[in-house]
Amino acid sequence: MKRTKNFALVALLQLIAWSGFAYTPDSLMAIGNRAYNQGMYDSALLVYNQVAGQDLQSAQLFYNMGNAHFKNNNVPAAILFFEKARKLAPSDENIQYNLSVANSMIVDKIEQVPELFYKTWWNYFYNLFNADTWTVIALFLLTCLIFMITWFVLTKSRTFKQTSFYLGVLLLFFTITAFGLASQKYYYSREHQEAIVFTPAITVKSSPTQSAVDLFVIHEGTKVKLLDRVSGWIEIRIPDGSIGWLPENSVQEI
Amino acid sequence: MGKGSGNNNDVTFNASAKEDIRFIGKDIRHIKTINEPLKPVGNYLFGSLFFFVLLFVILLIPFILIILWKRMEKQNANVSRVKNRKANKIARMRLQKAEKFKQSGNDKGFYDEMALGIWGYIADKFNISLSELSIETVREKLQNKSVNEEITNNFIQSLNNIEFARFAPGDARDKMESVYNEAITAIMQAEKALK
User: Fold this and answer.
1) Cα–Cα distances in Å, from A52 out to A9, A58, B117, B124?
2) Is the pLDDT of residue A3 over 60?
3) Which of A33, A59, A192, B153 could anchor a disulfide with A253, C-beta 3.0 to 4.6 Å?
4) DSSP B79-138
5) Is B51 an 8 Å CB contact of chain A?
6) Handedness of CA A6, A9, A15, A18 (dihedral sign)
7) B72 touching chain A per CB within 8 A
8) How far is CA B21 from each of CA B18, B24, B25, B103, rounded to the nearest angstrom?
9) Fold type of domain A2-103
10) Could you tell me which CATH number the domain at A194-253 has?
């Protein structure tokens, strides 16, 4: 019974592969999920890729792709997609959990440079929502601020003037913060600022040439920050603060 | 002594035989099966045309509100100015009406109209509603306009007399006459002082 079911699914997947965009993205997601549930991770990835190939994205799609890569024992790819998913849904607990599981299976153990307290706070709020949500919050706060200013200008009562002044100052602070977070999140989401190493082991060089001095070795699955790009080479920084150059094709951008 | 059989039946139930949960494997969590809406890649609210339109509209709000507010204030000022100018005239008309009631023997109508005339005068003059008026507010308003003590007192006296006569039964004709004259002088003096 199971075998015939699997066979039917394989036939269906073949059909999808040939027919291209005949299916709606939502039905493709459902088919991919079904393939995953049956343990056919390659087929699931094939279908998920069809959705991603239409320039569509969602946290769910990247999360499921990460899961399928993980089950295929492709840890760096799993980390890549979990990171992509986390970019869209920063506070999703399942994504964070799976990412930490995947991260526990990589070779490199890098000491994180301790952050300053205000940076920790900033990052806490920063990771609370995605770019669009922060934008909506910022616009909402701006609207409140504008109303408060108008109230301050128009009111004749002393108490109301005082109240609206203090509330206005508070709102101004919050609005600026929200706009800061929204713009930072927007640039972070749009630009590729991080990448995952895909080569099993690679030497980081001191300059963007093959003959440069070897600095240190990193392994697949490690997340690096992108700093610069020079003809086929990228400058990277690892979490402990070390900087060096890698060939561009050894990493994939998040 | 024989050896015990040592089977499990001898073990008594122990209520505290609880164990910590033992984790025997670690795995990632399952995929998300409930479909989320898929969005085009690189489609952000921040920096989009819609974002700037929204920003523009939000920044426009105070100007619209202030313009509307100013227009409303102007309208209110117009209404109160007209009322202020006509206060004396209306009060006189009411007193005349009261006089007619007096002649036709309608005592209640006379006092009601007198009260309305003198209270209404203050209400129109200072642009406050009749329901907010009291002897205290009248005194306060007149003093704020630096009307002299005697005129203020006369006015209050007249108000008091009308109110008193209104609810005191069985009064003489000549009392009505004095109340009427008092009210007319009070309004005349006030009008002169408030000019």
Assistant:
1) 21, 9, 82, 74
2) no
3) A192
4) HHHHHHHHHHHHHHHHHHHHHHHHHTT-HHHHHHHHHHHHHHHHHHHHT--GGG--HHHH
5) yes
6) negative
7) no
8) 9, 9, 12, 103
9) 1.25.40
10) 2.30.30.40
A13 touches A35 (CB < 8 A) = yes
- Phi, psi torsion values for A207, nearest 5 degrees: -150, 165
Judged by CB atoms closer than 8 Å, whether chains meet at A190 and B44 is answered as yes
Residue A60 contacts B where some CB pair is shorter than 8 Å = yes
State pLDDT tens for residues A205-224.
999 999 999 999 999 999 99
Residues in chain B within 8 Å Cβ distance of A77: none
Phi first, then psi, for residue A203 (nearest 5°) are -90, 130
| % of chain A residues with pLDDT over 70 | 91
pLDDT of residue B194: 78
Instruction: With CB atoms and an 8 Å threshold, state whether B38 touches A98.
Output: no
CATH number belonging to the domain at B81-194, selected among 1.10.10, 1.20.120, 2.60.120, 1.10.8: 1.20.120
Q: Sort out which chain A residues have CB atoms less than 8 A from B76's CB and list them.
A: none
Spans of all domains in chain B: 81-194
What residues in B contact A55, CB-CB < 8 Å? 40-42
Q: Is B131 left (phi over 0), alpha (psi -120 to 50) or beta?
A: alpha
Q: What's the pLDDT tens digit per position in A49-62?
A: 999 998 999 999 99
Q: What does pTM read for this prediction?
A: 0.66
- Is residue A135 pLDDT above 60, yes or no? yes
pLDDT above 90: residue A131: no
Per-residue pLDDT, averaged over B84-102, amounts to: 85
CB B159 within 8 A of CB B141: no
Which range of A115-119, B63-67, B155-159 scores highest in mean pLDDT? It is B63-67
Which of A141-150, A195-204, B93-102 is the least confident region? B93-102
ipTM of the complex: 0.72
Domain residue spans in chain A? 2-103, 117-190, 194-253
Distance between CA atoms of residues A199 and A209, nearest Å: 18
